Amino acid sequence: MTESPATTFSHQADPHKRARLRWRARRGLLENDIIVERFFNRYEESLSDEDVASLSELFELSDNELMDLLLARKELDGELDTPPMQRVITLLRTV
């Protein structure tokens, strides 16, 4: 049984998924919030589902771990060091 296009929504096609991602992006550190908000304002419309999956993984990190990555005090390593994650981190660092 295959799903119809009406039941399979990408991040871009589903406003509820977009709202949930923005909600998950809210952080305890104001600095993280500012960077992530600027990122969404600039790139949200062009994010692929792969980008969204990478962001979701990043949002699982602690505030301090995320801040270290955003400010390039640390680099991606281990399971997070993938091309899609590198792309998202690069974009986050440009805002």
Terminal Cα span: 43 Å
What do we call the CATH homologous superfamily? Flavinator of succinate dehydrogenase
The rough form would be described as globular
Helix content estimate: 55-70%
Total domains: 1
CATH T-level fold name? DNA polymerase, domain 1
- How is the biggest beta sheet arranged? none
Class derived from helix and strand content: mainly alpha
Number of beta-strand segments: 0
Give Rg in angstroms: 14 Å
Strand content: under 5%
The overall average pLDDT, rounded, is: 84
Low-confidence stretches: 1-7
- The CATH architecture term is Orthogonal Bundle
Record keyword descriptors for this entry.
single chain; disordered N terminus; 0% strand; mainly alpha; globular; DNA polymerase, domain 1; 95 residues; 57% helix
Topology:
Blueprint: H1 15-25, H2 30-43, H3 49-58, H4 63-70, H5 83-93
Helix pairs in contact: 3-5
Describe the structure.
This protein is an all-alpha fold and 95 residues long. It has one domain: DNA polymerase, domain 1 (Orthogonal Bundle). It contains 5 helices and no strands. It has helices spanning 15-25, 30-43, 49-58, 63-70, 83-93. Helix 3 (49-58) crosses helix 5 (83-93). The longest helix has 14 residues, at 30-43. The radius of gyration is 14 Å and the shape is globular. The chain starts with 14 loop residues before the first helix and ends with a helix. The model is unreliable at 1-7 (pLDDT under 50). Keywords: Chaperone, Cytoplasm. One of its GO terms (biological process) is succinate metabolic process.
